[in-house]
Please model this.
Amino acid sequence: MTPDKPEAAPVDHLRFHRGHAHLAPTFGNDTFALKAEAFARFFGTPTFLGAQTAIVVLWVVLNVTGITHFDVYPFILLNLAFSLQSAYAAPLILLAQTRQAARDKAQSDADAQHREAIAIANTERQAQAAQTNKQMLELLEQNTRLTEMTKQLTERIETLTCEMHEQFMRKT
Model:
């Protein structure tokens, strides 16, 4: 830090993403939305698939073996349960996909803005470097001229000193 340059403020690296923060939760921020998101996320887990398989196997075994007769073959109640599950699952999954697409687009837009800001900053730094380089070359040229002048003056002083010394020796 130099005395003539103030300390730079910290850069908010997420500044382009903050405008899209409302898209972070899949279904919104209220209680229902959070529960719906948790439910939709649970559909694709091995736990859900294992539990559903176990329930279906138990359902079929209980009804086929005759232990119970609440849903005999062709398992219409089981079919109804699957239909009900898909009736709720499909809209939740579509909603999740739509929101994910919106989040992906917002992320892409924020990334594009960030890349543009980096490109502008890079162009400014290159221009500043070119200006600094130009000033450095001018200073080097001035230094070379001053060095040549110093050399010429030193030679002239040496010549004058020799002449004065010769004149002084002739007078004595």
About this structure: Residues 76-171 form the longest helix (96 residues). The two ends are 63 Å apart (CA to CA). Residues 25-138 form one domain. The mean pLDDT is 85.
